[in-house]
Here is the input.
Amino acid sequence: MNEKLNAFHIVILIHMTQVGVTIFSLPRICATHFGTNGWIAILPVGLMVLANVALIHAVVRLGGGRSLPDMLGLFLPKPVAGALQLGMSGMYALSACLTSKQYVLMYELQSFPATRPYVFRAGIDVLIFCLVIIGIYNLSKAVTVIFFSTMVIPFTLLSLYDETELVRYTPFFLKEGTDVWVGCLELYAAYLGFELSLFLIPYVGRGTRWFRGVYAANAVTTVIYLILTIIAFGFFSYGQLRDMLYPLLEMVGHVQLPIIERVDTLMFTSFFLVALVTATLYFWIATELFSYVFPKIDKRWPAAFLIFITYFVSSIPEELDLVTGWLRLMGKIAICTAILLPLLLIGGMLIARARRPKTS
Here is the structure.
C-alpha cells in the first residue's frame, strides 16, 4: 500500500473519534460531580489523558513500526493474543453501536418522539458498513470533509459570550460536588478515541513523527471542551447546569441567526455526522482486531458480522437512560484497556528484548 496517513489526517481522525454525544452533557457532568466552577476539572483530566497518550507513544517507539498483533506475538502465545484481540473487538463494536443508538434515541426525543428508532438505526448501520469497508485512507478523506462541514457548529456558541455573566462563576471552586472519582471517569471517557493511534501504525510512514498529530488532536479536543464548558458556566447558573440534561443544546436554542429559526435543531441534526464518524471509527478498530485473528477472511465479512451482531445486542436496552448506563460501563472498560494495554505491551516487549540472545 503506497498511500500513507500523515499528521494532518491523524489530527482529524483522532479528534473526530473523541468528540461524541457526551459533549452535550459535559457542563452538567462538570457541575454535578465537581461543583462550582467545575469546568476547571477539564484541565487535570486532560493532563491525565495526555499521560496516557504519551504511554501509547512509548509503545509505538518501542515497537519500531510493528503492528499490534506483531507486538503481542513477541511475548504472548498465539491463542492468548487472539482471545485478547477478539475481546477488544467485541468491546469496540458494542461501544460503536451503543453510540449510534444513543444519538438516535436523543434525536427521537428531540424531534420525532412518535417514531420508532429501529429503521433509522438500520440505515445508519448500513452507512457505517459502507464507510468501514472503503479502508482507513479513503475513510480519512471522508472524515476530513465531515470535519470541515461541522467544525463551525461549536463556534456558534461563541456568539453567546456577551450573555455570560461573571457573577455566575462565583468566587468558589469545586464546592458542592457529589463524586469526583465518577466525574473523572466520565470526563476521561469523553476523551476516548486517542487509542485509535495504536491501530494506525501499519497505515503511517516510518518513524514516529506522525504521532505529533495525536498530541495535537488531544490538545484541540481539550480546548474545545474547555471553551464550551466555560461559556456554559457563565450562561447558566450553577443550579440550572445541574438540572439540565443537555446544557449545550439548551444554549444553542438561544443562538439567533438571521436566516435560521431553529438553530438547535440544525445543530443536533448536523451532529449526526459527528456521531456517525465516531461509531464508524470504532467499528473500523473492531474490524481490524477481528481481521488480525482471521487474516485470510475479507474484511467486509467481519465488518458485516460485527455490525449485525451488535445491532441486536444493543437492542436490549430500549430506553435512553439504559443505553447511557451501558455506555458508561463500556467507557470504563475502554479506559482500562487504554491504560493497561500499553503497559502490557511495554512490559512484554522489554521482557522479550531482555530474553533475546545477543549476537557477537
